Amino acid sequence: MASGKGAGKQYREKGEGYMYWVAFLCSICSLVLVFVAFASPFWYKSWSRVHSPLANVGMWHICLSGWVKPRDPMMRSYVGCWWIHSTFFEEVWDDIMPAWFRVVQTVVVLTLIVNIVTVGMLSFYLVDRFRIKYYNPNRYRAFMINSVLMFVSGVFVLIVALMFPMYAKDPTWMPRPWLNYLSWSYGFFVLSGFFAVFSGISLFLKSTEIHHKPDKGTMEIEKKLELPHLPTGMAPPMRPPHYEPSEQGGRSVGGYSIGQTSLGQASMGKASMGQASMGAVSQGGQSKHSESFV
């Protein structure tokens, strides 16, 4: 099993770098926190020791314990936990979900989408095929886009972090706001903003590093995918020279005629039309001369 030091060296050779892993882990933490805050119903909660018309409320779920619509002549009381878009609240939708609450819901959804997109894009960087296809054309711009997305997520979190507690204390939304407090779902969402900013900073540093220094790991991966693997010491195959058979049964290479061979040595001569060709043939160590006339 490879040690931690060996694994770190392998990551550096592959080209991710420590900044990438810091950004990737921070973006995952931000996504998990945003998702938990998105799905949980504990953004705003009442103290358990006192009675309040509001039990707890989230982005999509609300629990009431005797809430009455302001200035309702029928004095209808709402009790129980419901999906916030349920038809049970059809007559009081504008009171349960005022305009500011719907804006908060929209921003939370956008924050979740931005985090999902960023984590997906950073995950592609771990796969060599996607990495070369989507990042290599302009890796500096790709990491800069991821950095901007995480900063946008941080801005969305800041908007919700300021807007929700300011309007949640409005007594026209829930009576006796001094009996209620911001709960852990809101805290998770705010905490996700810090991880988003840390991820954005790390991605920005990674993009500037790529802009000034090429990624050697990616260049090595490209070579592995483009060139076949050859054993050590072997050169790539080369095309053979031009070959044409001659009329006298020999062969010609590059314009020269190579005649037939005999025992001991091969005879080579340059033949021409209308001239005599002479060659020396040796057999068993004795030299003989042969002449041919055309």
Automatic annotation (TrEMBL):
User: Can you say where in the cell this protein is located?
Assistant: Membrane
Record membrane topology: Multi-pass membrane protein
Pfam families (alphabetical):
Claudin_2
Region listing for Disordered, in residue ranges? 236-256, 274-294
What stretches pass through the bilayer? 20-44, 103-127, 148-166, 186-205
Keyword terms of this UniProt record? Membrane, Transmembrane, Transmembrane helix
Q: Which InterPro entries match?
A: PMP22/EMP/MP20/Claudin
> Which terms in the GO cellular component ontology are assigned?
membrane
Q: Out of the domains of life, which is the source?
A: Eukaryota
Q: What is the name of the protein in this document?
A: Uncharacterized protein
* The organism of origin for this protein: Magallana gigas (Pacific oyster)
